[in-house]
Amino acid sequence: DIQMTQSPSSLSASVGDRVTITCRASQSIGSFLNWYQQKPAKAPKLLIYTSSNLQSGVPSRFSGSGSGTDFTLTITSLQPEDFATYYCQQSYSTQVTFGGGTKVEI
Amino acid sequence: DVQLVESGGGLVQPGGSLRLSCAASGFTFSSYDMHWVRQVPGKGLEWVSNIGTAGDTYYPDSVKGRFTISRENAKNSLYLQMNSLRAGDTAVYYCVRAVVLYGMDVWGQGTTVIVSS
After folding, report:
1. Whole-number Å distance between alpha carbons of B90 and B98
2. DSSP run (H or E) holding A47
3. Is the confidence at residue B99, as pLDDT, over 90?
4. How far apart are CA A65 and CA A76, in angstroms?
5. Separation of alpha carbons B3 and A28, rounded Å
6. Pairing of strands B91-99, B111-115
7. What's the burial of B15, exposed, middle or buried (CB within 10 Å: 0-12/13-18/19+)?
8. Strand, helix or coil at A80?
């Protein structure tokens, strides 16, 4: 199975900060990497698909990049509603795997 | 509106069985891969199973041989038959729509399964 490793597992930030979360795959997955945001007691929400494509309705302060094994989710100018947990997920393999999550806290 | 609504969760004893259902609406159900993803409260997301448009199925080792995913396109419904349940299967189970190139774009609200004596 492809292991997905996110870092950091948590971070503290302030409104207006630029935040970067990384995700590393245990083998090359091309661009088959998606990012999700989850708020407490809510289902996850798709933010970025295929590494760098912004899902419809997602603010442009979210962006994704990377290919192969190393990927990045960037939030420019963090907003109050962005405090949440973020997960990466690979869809290269039929055995789907998620990263462990990154909790973005104040 | 595109919607997924899960049902069938509840309390079950270890070794027992449970069948989850997911009702889809607002899109052509038969055209999409469907997944079940679970989450232990306070923990991360774990993929549980996937069924393709052709009925091909996939499972992680943690549930293989115990869980069975199926779909009934005529009823716009997805199912997860869970047998030989263990305490470690306790989680919120989400029904999810997916396209390989476009991610898991629609999630249900989740149904809670508790395995306990």
Report:
1. 24
2. strand A45-49
3. no
4. 14
5. 33
6. antiparallel
7. exposed
8. helix
* pLDDT confidence bin for A96, thresholds 50/70/90: very high
Q: Quick check: A43 and B104 CB within 8 A?
A: no
The answer to whether B59 touches B67, Cβ cutoff 8 Å, is yes
Cross-strand bridge partners of residue A65? A72
A2 in reach of chain B (CB within 8 A): no
How far is Cα B9 from Cα A42, in angstroms, rounded to an integer?
17
> Is A101 exposed, middle or buried (CB count within 10 Å of its CB: 0-12, 13-18, 19+)?
buried
Partner residue opposite B46 with nearest CB, options A48, A91, A98: A98
Q: Among B31, B20, B38, which Cα is nearest to B78's? A: B20
The span from the CA of B18 to the CA of A68, in Å, is 39
Give B17's pLDDT tier (boundaries 50, 70, 90): very high
